[in-house]
Design a protein that fits this description.
α4 (about 80-90) crosses α6 (about 175-185). By secondary structure, the protein is α+β, with helices and mostly antiparallel strands. The longest helix has 15 residues, at about 80-90. It is about 20% helix and about 15% strand. β3 and β4 form a beta hairpin. The protein folds into 2 domains: about 1-55, no CATH class; about 60-145 and about 160-205, Heat Shock Protein 90. The strands form 3 sheets. It has a two-stranded antiparallel ribbon. A two-stranded antiparallel ribbon has the order 3-4.
Length: about 210
């Protein structure tokens, strides 16, 4: 790596966890991406990319929420799909000390690419590991265990309150990935954890699958 013998450096995960002798076997595994930095909080000079390889559940490609949404007693299924995406924002902002902001934007400007639906919130954000786990189909946010770092760690399902932002929309839901592929052909999630200087981005598309 061209490091001088008297130069100090650290090796970290993409979540800026420093690799030490004590946690080496836990954090360093096949396929993991590591940073070689001068300090844990060093600013990255350029964007880094990490390819995530996994076998998507066939329902992601074949059904994409069709059965669940069209089985909704003949109602317009689009609100059900949007509700799944909004639910992620409700959970992410559940511990906000200030204002909870959740926006839905419909983008039709061809100069920015294809039309899109954007759900934007000011929640606590997700790490690269949490985004990775979100990509794994049918991995419930309430049952992630072992090596999986939940994007809703410490989240406790509130008591159901009708027509309240403290309710959990997707209690009987089918999940964000089905909602995404019901609405469109690809998903881009951009997230910055509240305690991190790094912005993480995940792109999933049917074309890639």
């Amino acid at each position: 790596f061209g490091i001088d013998t008297d130069e100090n450096f650290v090796i970290t995960t993409t979540n800026r966890k420093e690799i030490t002798e004590d946690n080496f076997s836990e954090l360093v595994q096949d396929g993991v991406t590591l940073y070689l930095l001068q300090s844990v909080d060093q600013m990255l000079l350029s964007a880094t990319k990490e390819r995530i390889d996994f076998l998507p559940h066939y329902d992601t490609l074949v059904k994409s929420g069709m059965y669940e949404y069209y089985a909704s007693e003949g109602q317009n299924p689009l609100p059900f799909a949007l509700a799944e995406l909004i639910d992620n924002s409700l959970s992410a902002t559940s511990r906000n000390t200030g204002i909870r902001s959740i926006q839905i934007e419909l983008l039709f400007d061809d100069s920015q690419g294809k039309p899109a639906v954007a759900v934007i919130d000011n929640g606590r954000g997700m790490t690269s590991k949490q985004l990775n786990n979100w990509a794994v189909y049918r991995l419930s946010k309430f049952t992630r265990q072992g090596d999986f770092e939940s994007d809703h760690s410490g989240y406790v399902r509130p008591l159901p309150v009708p027509r309240s932002l403290n309710s959990d929309i997707s209690y009987f839901g089918v999940g964000g990935k089905q909602a995404v592929f019901f609405v469109g052909q690809s998903a881009r999630m951009i997230s910055k954890p509240a305690d991190s200087q790094d912005v993480h981005e995940l792109v999933l598309s049917k074309e890639d699958f």
